[in-house]
Specification:
By secondary structure, this protein is an alpha+beta fold. 27% of the residues lie in helices and 31% in strands. The two termini are 34 Å apart.
Length: 712
């Protein structure tokens, strides 16, 4: 299959042009596949203004609304859902036949092939202009497109010419297409826009910026349907590329680029995709490598954001003094509170790690310290270190690798493998240095993952049959490894499976037998209990070999793992009447306490305080949040409250007073005095929650790694 997606049909799915701000669109994306066993044969997606509103595939054999307003519409007008279900079922058969016909016509007897169609309409609600479209792609390249004016097909590929001649003779079908795309499609689109107006049109006065000290603009004009972003310059370390990040804009038809002396820069520039925020707005990034640019020339570079329908550009000059970073020189700790935008970006790029970590923390039933006077003792308890292997297989999830493997050292990702890249990758610099001396270790892990991938594919297929599941998304997980207490030398091994978010079966290494919490696992338990040589091998691996590997990793990563890094603490608030979140990011190790206090006493009311899970950052550090409901606190009493952060092994305590002047917010309602450096921290927190919900989390007790011989 062609990989030239720049000109190919896949580009239609991802590259967004800049057009009129008053245009609305209704698009249908249909995909049929052959020769791809782990992908549905047919998938259909409906979008309104590039927001997904409907979905169907050959596995679920049904159509599903994907927005609350769409669910209300189909409840009020059920024939809509009935029509979509019929279309999904009918197109599944039609596309299968077309895919077979194309394969025969192109003399393709085997392999994987993909047939796609994007069709729909655009409507300009000011001019009333309607534009319909119907385009086909085959194996990643443009194939055919319909000209609704001439009612003739255009062959975009030489091998499509025969099909064009055939389809040009189908006059009844051509007239039906014209009627649908010019009349019926716009009618439905108007109805959808009416139902989804609050999400799709973002009504309300929104300020347009022209100059502030941070990103060179101020808010002085108004657009009724657009939202401008906050633009930040981010950098991991002083030698890393600089990322220009814009978040909170609407609609998603926008451009972000670097320029120098008025000319756009293309060399050493990498553009990221436009991504959704939790509130319906969007974010995007563009990265530039400045390693070869003298510091004296940095000021000649600018990051430019242009939103469709807005004449003014948001221009952010490249200035080292305005770059946000989590980097801390080894000689000192960071001063004062700063924002968590860098964390947000990395979490978006590493959602798989975040999801695994949240699941693992839920397993260990982690709770934030509510210690008060016992604070110091809670931080000086026995030190446990762990080496854990996570394996995840999915079925019916087209946007996820069908198999993922992650190695975690003390809950820090140090190795990664998935079925797309088909190789193992180290995830920490010290691990890369270690593997340069012992490259066979990486090869061993890659071989293990490849074997487990094949076994897990068979296992998840068997489990679906056992549970009588013919469609939908299903997840098989396993976590295994060992934990060593450095104080008393105790070793604990574990090997546990979960299916669709619940415990399935786990190994009792002491009694050398499997435990089946669910009746559906009893058959597996009986078969695996009979494989005593396998159980004895696992017992040896988890209780002897695994601790030796753990000790070796700890020794090679000692300088990194034994460091103490204080966090940057920020106060975040979505709106003036929302709870206030105290967010600490960039600390290490994770043993820390964080809480709100008033007049020196910890605030404990559950109705007022909410503690969040400790999460990983990309660089091996951690982040944590605690939220305080301030709705019933009089303004005069705010400064009696403090957010307290205490890191294990560090004498100093970070104390941040509850002060409206230092609260960071994305709120754009009634004007108020904001700090110059406003950040996307609130967005970051919500995105973390979205990532946590992106998988069906295995909520309890996941222990285990080495796979038993034989399928589940």
């Amino acid at each position: 299959m062609s990989t030239n997606t720049t000109k190919g049909f896949f580009a239609l799915l991802f590259i967004l042009g800049v057009t009129s701000a008053v245009k609305h669109s209704l698009k249908y994306f249909l995909t049929a596949t052959s020769g791809m066993q782990n992908f549905p044969e047919f998938v259909g997606v409906a979008t309104v203004d590039d927001v997904q509103v409907g979905y169907c595939d050959s596995s679920i054999q049904s159509a599903e609304p994907k927005q609350d307003w769409m669910k209300k519409l189909v409840q009020a007008e059920p024939y809509h859902l009935h029509w979509y279900r019929q279309k999904c079922y009918g197109n599944q058969k039609v596309f299968r036949e077309k895919l077979e016909a194309f394969s025969l016509r192109l003399n393709q007897s085997g392999g994987s092939h993909i047939l796609q169609r994007m069709n729909g309409c655009e409507f300009d609600d000011e001019s009333g202009e309607v534009e319909g479209f119907n385009q086909y792609g085959y194996d990643g390249e443009d194939f055919l497109s319909l000209d609704l004016r001439s009612l003739m097909w255009t062959a975009s590929h030489p091998q499509a010419f025969t099909t064009k001649l055939l389809w040009d003779t189908e006059t009844a079908r051509l007239e039906y297409n014209k009627n649908y795309y010019i009349y019926k499609c716009p009618e439905w689109l108007k109805k959808y826009v009416h139902y989804g107006k609050s999400i799709l049109e973002r009504k309300g006065d929104v300020a347009i910026a022209t100059h502030t000290p941070h990103h060179g603009i101020q808010r002085d004009s108004v657009s009724p349907s657009a939202e401008l972003p906050m633009v930040s310059l981010l950098q991991k370390t002083p030698s890393s590329p600089v990322c220009c990040h814009a978040t909170g804009f609407f609609p998603d038809r926008a451009m972000l680029f670097w320029r120098r002396d008025g000319e756009e820069v293309h060399e050493h520039v990498q553009h990221g995709e436009i991504l959704h925020n939790h509130d319906g707005t969007f974010q995007m990034s563009v990265i530039i490598d400045m390693s070869s640019i003298p510091a004296a020339e940095w000021g000649e570079y600018e990051c430019v954001f242009q939103l469709e329908g807005i004449q003014d550009q948001m221009v952010t000059q490249l200035d080292k003094a305005k770059i946000w970073t989590n980097w801390v020189p080894p000689s000192r700790f960071p001063p004062g509170p700063v924002a968590g935008v860098v964390v947000m970006l990395v979490l978006l790029l590493g959602g798989a790690f975040a999801g695994l970590y949240i699941w693992w923390r839920k397993y260990k039933e982690f709770r934030l310290a509510n210690m008060g006077a016992q604070l110091s003792s809670s931080l000086t308890s026995s030190v446990n270190v762990s080496l854990s292997y996570f394996l995840i297989a999915t079925s019916g999830a087209p946007n996820l690798p069908e198999f993922v493997g992650v190695v975690m050292l003390n809950d820090m990702p140090v190795g990664y493998y998935d079925s797309n890249i088909k190789r193992a990758e180290p995830k920490q610099d010290w691990v890369k240095a270690y593997l340069e001396h012992e490259p066979q270790h990486l090869k061993w892990y890659a071989a293990q993952c490849l074997d487990h991938q094949q076994d897990f594919n068979a296992d998840i297929y068997g489990l679906k049959r056992r549970f009588n599941q013919s469609g939908g998304i299903h997840i098989l997980q396993r976590v295994s490894g060992c934990e060593v207490n450095y104080d008393n030398g105790n070793v604990r091994g574990f090997n546990r499976y979960g299916y669709n978010g619940e415990d399935f079966i786990w190994l009792d290494l002491e009694k050398k037998r499997w435990v089946a919490p669910r009746k559906e696992a009893h058959t597996t338990k009986e078969r695996w209990d009979a494989e005593m040589p396998t159980i004895e091998y696992m017992q040896h691996f988890y209780l002897y070999e695994c601790p030796l590997l753990l000790e070796k990793y700890m020794r090679h990563g000692a300088s990194f793992l034994h460091r103490r890094v204080l966090p940057k603490v920020s106060l975040l608030q979505k709106t003036p009447w929302s709870p206030v979140t105290c967010h600490a990011t960039g600390f290490y190790p994770e043993e820390a306490a964080m809480f709100w206090q008033r007049a020196g006493r910890q605030v404990r009311q559950e109705a007022r305080v909410q503690h969040w899970e400790t999460l990983h950052n990309h660089d091996g550090t951690f982040q944590r949040s605690v939220t305080l409901n301030v709705s019933s606190i009089p303004d005069i009493e705010w400064e009696e409250y403090e957010c307290v952060f205490k890191l294990n092994g560090v004498e100093d305590t970070l104390v941040t007073k509850l002060n409206k002047a230092v609260i960071m917010t994305n709120y754009r309602g009634t004007p108020r005095s904001y700090p110059a450096a406003m950040v996307g921290g609130a967005v970051a927190l919500m995105l973390l929650m979205a990532i946590a919900l992106s998988l069906r989390i295995w909520k309890r007790h996941p222990f285990g790694f080495q796979l038993a011989n034989g399928n589940i």
